[in-house]
Write a structure and sequence with these properties.
Helices cover 36% and strands 29% of the residues. The protein is α/β, with parallel strands linked by helices. It starts with a strand and ends with a helix. The relative contact order is 0.13.
Amino acid sequence: MNILEANNIVKRFTHHTALDNVSLHVPEGMIYGLLGPNGAGKTTLIRIINHITAPDSGEVLFDGHHLTADDVSNIGYLPEERGLYKKMEVGEQAIFFARLKGMTRHDATTQLKAWFERLEIGDWWKKKVQELSKGMAQKVQFIITVLHKPRLLIFDEPFSGFDPINANILKNEILELSKQGSTVIFSTHNMSSVEELCQRITLINRSHDILTGDVIDLRKQYGGNRMSLTYRGDTDALCKAIAPMVSLCTVSTPDRDRNLRINIDLTSSMARRDLISTANSVVDLVGFEQLLPSMDEIFISAVANSNLQSQQND
């Protein structure tokens, strides 16, 4: 079941169309990636989902019904822009936001202090917000976002300002929230995080959704015929034997077991079984696998193809 559906969303501003017939279907319990270059329309879509602004046309459904202002209490939103009051003490400000979400002061204080210790910022409870680093402020906002246990969490560039250690702490917290049943929409430019966290993605470019699918399926789809052979034997003989079958061939240095690895692009007319048979006839073939592209490569390729199509249609 989809906890959120955005169907055929259109949003125009005076001199710009931010979203042009964009759709997004997020299954309950999933970590869903919302990707795209700067200015693609991601933040506008997020603002529509949060009932901050309204679409010109299209519909947003939450848990099977049209999204209303009351549904926002079931959504936790961590924006990329910092939204803390600099002059307030950190703890008091966190309690203030928790009370806005309907929590009692006692429950908010108890749970907040537990979260502060968990994310290693307990010593900052009495500090002023203006004393926080960018990463510390992001931790505080993360806690405020998840504290009331909303069913849908939306994180916009949640790792901005974090060093690798703290980014990993936050990744683990997001995974734990997902295990506990929260649905997560995750907007980021960090494609390695997408590979680690997201099960499914939608890529928006120039106000259009240009790519949607499961991460593993997209990596296989864009992988084409890129293969890796692990072997022992004569590299020159192997390259010569498979030359008619491949368009690109690169050899790596031996691994610690003295196995060699060769990466190839199999021509579209050749079958994998023929490649394996030919390779096995001249070397001792140890392993064979498809080389899957990274999400970075898929992102760049899909955006480039979309931009090219736009230019051709103009």
